Amino acid sequence: MGLLVYSVWLLVCVCVMCVCVCDSCDVKPAQDCGCNTLHRHRTEEEEEDEEGGRNGQTAAHKYSVTANKEFVNKVKKEETLSKMLRMQGGWFLMGTDDPGIPQDGEGPQRRIWLEPFYIEEHEVTNLQFQSFANITHHVTEAEQFGDSFVFEGLLSEEVKSSLSHAVAAAPWWSPVKGADWRHPEGPDSSITHRMDHPVLHVSWTDAQAYCEWAGRRLPTEAEWEFACRGGLQDRLYPWGNKLMPRGQHYANLWQGEFPNHNTAEDGFTQTSPVKRFPANAFGLYDMVGNVWEWTADWWSVHHTRDNTHNPKGPKTGSDRVKKGGSYMCHKSYCYRYRCAARSQNTPDSSASNLGFRCAADITL
Ligand SMILES: [Ca+2]
Ligand SMILES: [Ca+2]
User: Fold this and answer.
1) pLDDT confidence of 245, banded at 50, 70, 90?
2) For residue 197, which of 91, 100, 125, 326 sits 20 to 30 Å off, Cα-Cα?
């Protein structure tokens, strides 16, 4: 009996000790030294490496982390991309026999057949390009070169005083050091309050890279013009022949005297948020005005009058075609905010009024 009582007492003591030790395990180390809060800030890759090592997991675990990251990026990408609208294609009249700027190769007017295609409903925005750059770490050509062209009227006095030279034929353009898509007017500017504005300072190559990442492509010039015309035939603008129907502004252009006085009667001296002006009959925004848009085609001013199917422009060239004009366009010097109008730049050029939108084939 005495032995039994002693055994029970011993058992109770051991249990109590267990509870005490366990209590101290749970609470004391954390309260005493705070060791569990010590860690360095590491890159995601370093964290992945350590996690793999700590868990004794190697290739398989790293693969699942990579796969997870890829999945997250895929979701981010899908959330990022613009809505695309289906264009029916078919025959349409491209160009004009009444060119506003004949030397640009706006004519002759010719019959073009297009297969159906998709095109994005608005210009690619800063927010969208930021997602692309964050995920892919794409470095634009302006960032690589260290400068880009900015309209002088937008520059701060500080940046203006640092300028070395302007463009002889267009003195309102200056190459500005540190101007890029994140800093549209040079190093002292930002896009923070312009995330829904079109991205600027992207070269044709940058635009191409974005569209490729998106699983899309740049529109051909013919596709872009078809989309611009909104089903209307032989009209100047995406909405008709009158620049301001019922006295309303239908595009972000320049009002006043270029280049010294912009009255911004349409509400904007610079770019505007996408979709701020009325869409055309196809539901597409800012086809003319806001920013110029890169197309896939090489530049040529010579076109055949012959009926053509799905033209893709010349096979080679030195410049790429851009369409639609920008917030800087005024009839007095740049009457190019018409669907038939066109202009060009070298594929590595970038500027504070040039952006893009993507298109895609329809795969059934
Ligand atoms: Ca304007
Ligand atoms: Ca545009």
Assistant:
1) very high
2) 100
In order of 34, 135, 240, the CA distances from 79 in angstroms are 40, 13, 34
Q: Using 50, 70 and 90 to split pLDDT, how confident is the model at 197?
A: very high
Whether the Cβ atoms of residue 185 and residue 352 lie closer than 8 Å to each other: yes
Tokens 């038939």 found at: 340
Instruction: Give the pLDDT score at 73.
Output: 87
CB atoms within 10 A of CB 20: 10
Token code pair at residue 52: 């793999």
Distance 63 CA to ligand 2 centre (A): 42
Q: Is the pLDDT of residue 10 over 90?
A: no
| Residue 51 phi, psi dihedral angles, 5° rounding | -60, -40
Predicted TM-score (pTM) of this structure:
0.82
The pLDDT score that the predictor gives to residue 27 is: 34
Helix (H) or strand (E) holding 72: helix 59-80
Q: Is the peptide bond before 219 cis (omega within 30 degrees of 0)?
A: no
Cα gap 302→103, rounded to integer Å: 10
User: How far apart are the CA of 234 and the centre of ligand 2, in A?
Assistant: 19
pLDDT at residue 57 in the model: 56
Instruction: Return the SS3 of 361.
Output: strand
Q: What is the Å distance from ligand 2's center to 288 Cα?
A: 5
Q: Is the pLDDT of residue 135 over 90?
A: yes
- Within the chain, strands assigned E span 84-87, 90-94, 110-114, 117-120, 147-151, 173-177, 256-257, 261-262, 292-298, 308-309, 320-323, 343-345, 354-355, 359-361
- Mean pLDDT, rounded, of the chain: 87
Distance 285 CA to ligand 2 centre (A): 8
Q: How far is the CA of 184 from the centre of ligand 2 (A)?
A: 17
- Per residue in 313-342, is it b (16+ CB within 10 Å) or e — as a string? beeeeebbbbbbbbbbbbeeebebbbbbbb
CA 271 to ligand 1 centroid distance, Å: 7
Q: What is the share, in percent, of the chain residues with pLDDT greater than 70? A: 84
Ligand 2 centroid to Cα of residue 324, in Å, is: 5
More confident: 37 or 179: 179
Q: Which residues contact 75 (CB under 8 A, 6 or more apart)?
A: none
Read off the amino acid at residue 174. Answer: S
